[in-house]
Amino acid sequence: TIAYVRGEAVRDKTKLLKQHIWLVNSDGSQDRQFTRGPRADVHPRWSPDGKRLAFLSDRLEDGKLQVYSMDRDGGEAQALTEVKGSLDTTTGRSSLLWSPDGKFLSFLMTDPETAREKKRKEDKDDAYAHEGERKYLRLWTLEVSTRKLTQVTRGPVQVWGAQWSPDGRKFAVIISDDPFEWSWYHCRLALVPAA
Fold it and tell me: What is the mean pLDDT of the chain?
């Protein structure tokens, strides 16, 4: 069974495009809608045993993606996170990954808004300093059964992509020292323990 996303071409009173996850058999038969959230359901990922589908959705707050999980047979989607930072969807497959044993999910998340940024928003100070704030994209894991979040990467390290090792004990990550777009051209490959 293949999970894919269908979306509308334009936004209509939502911060993100309205999108839903659909399922289709690999022979093209039985194309059917799987999620029916009010806004965006994106980045579907099958659990290793094929029994659950994890995805990102802004069901709780318009434009604010969280991690959800849903039984393959349908039912109600369960919110697994209520994070403050922004979940990254620009890095494709690294955006949401199951651990090889299916007990954890990993994702990339930008540092949450600082107190200074919140104050500027409240004061309606919309001045923008290009590359003024160092907001890093960090690697996180989520234990699915307990919903415990663990920040895997710390310090001045931007994570551009990540992949679980086959035994689930480490990640191979593409990192740079700076969180800016040009930093991609100065990145390197590293290993980091999943713990």
Answer: 92
pLDDT of 131 above 90: no
Task: Measure the CA–CA gap between 123 and 155, rounded to whole angstroms.
Answer: 29
How far is it, in rounded angstroms, from Cα 36 to Cα 38? Answer: 7
Is the separation of the CB atoms in 43 and 55 below 8 Å? yes
The band of 92, judged by pLDDT with boundaries at 50, 70 and 90, is low
Q: What is the dihedral of CA 135, 66, 108, 42, to 10 degrees?
A: -120
Of 2, 116, 91, 14, nearest to 58 by C-alpha is: 14
Cα 34 from Cα 3, distance rounded (Å): 9
Q: For residues 140, 165, 45 and 56, what is the CA-based torsion angle, rounded to 10 degrees?
A: 10
Q: Is the pLDDT of residue 113 over 70?
A: yes
DSSP state of 181: G
